[in-house]
Design a protein that fits this description.
Strand order of the largest sheet: 1-2-3-4-5-6-7-8-9-10-11-12-13-14-15
Oligomer: single chain
Largest sheet: 15 strands, antiparallel
Length: 256
């Protein structure tokens, strides 16, 4: 069987072999289709909106077995105020799916590898690499003034709820984080205080090794933090210059 036509505001081309109740060597090419209508058709949550292309190949499909691959690409012109390219590859063998996902904006790239999904348990997991060249473009999304680069690696698990754990050394110290139940928990170990303050667009008045925790409620947009500063030095400022001139005390030379 071969054919072509129009579907979901785009074009479709297909060819396959049917033997009794089994379909073999199935090839389906979708071009410039409406991604929102496609996801709605399969009763999936619409996350990305835009024109999409998809290539599907299945060696065979019947009631008991299915084996094949799906290659899906979509470009969303306004995903949370950012132009985003999404590329998904899935290898399917019965109830087991193996996938990779690559999402990119001009300022961000998110790559998921070694992804697996079990259709019976509805559990998905993957490794991720996140690279952000400019945090300031996400100020509107999180409601905070931030800047600088950020790079992280970690694990993503989705089973009823989303859980993300990872590490980063973008702040010149160790940063570990966990997202679970709408709470983002960040633990800092020996992070230079100036590197931390720089990310929130604030001038640092001191230098120190920072160890502590930040808890951010993504839903409520509320943040709590607790820090311990070690080897603290006051940086040269108007205050330190005033103390030196009036009291002959150079506080900038002290370590606390």
């Amino acid at each position: 069987l071969k054919g072509e036509g129009k579907i979901l505001d785009g074009n479709v081309r297909f060819d396959l072999i049917k033997e009794h109740k089994t379909f073999k060597n199935i090839n389906l090419a979708l071009r410039d289709i409406n991604s929102t209508k496609l996801l709605t058709l399969f009763e999936q949550k619409v996350i990305f909106d835009g024109k999409a292309n998809a290539d599907l190949h299945f060696d065979y499909i019947n009631k008991k077995v299915r084996k094949g691959t799906i290659n899906y690409r979509v470009k969303d012109q306004n995903f949370h105020n950012h132009v985003t390219d999404l590329h998904v590859n899935v290898a399917i063998e019965n109830e087991k799916h193996i996938f990779t996902i690559d999402a990119r904006t001009p300022e961000l790239s998110l790559n998921l590898t070694e992804g697996t999904y079990d259709k019976k348990t509805k559990r998905a997991k993957a490794l991720f690499t996140l690279d952000i060249s400019d945090l300031s473009v996400f100020e509107k999304n999180i409601g905070e003034n931030i800047e600088g680069e950020f790079h992280a690696t970690g694990n993503i698990v989705h089973h009823k709820d989303l859980q993300v754990t990872g590490t980063s050394k973008s702040l010149d110290g160790l940063l570990t984080f966990e997202y679970k139940d709408t709470l983002l928990t960040i633990n800092l170990t020996d992070v230079p205080f100036s590197s931390l303050i720089k990310r929130i667009s604030t001038l640092s008045l001191l230098e120190a090794n920072t160890t502590g925790q930040i808890v951010y409620d993504v839903k409520k947009r509320e943040m709590q933090s607790q820090f311990e500063l070690k080897h603290t030095k006051i940086l040269s400022s108007k205050l330190s210059q005033t103390l030196l001139q009036k009291f002959n005390y150079d506080i900038a030379s002290e370590t606390f």
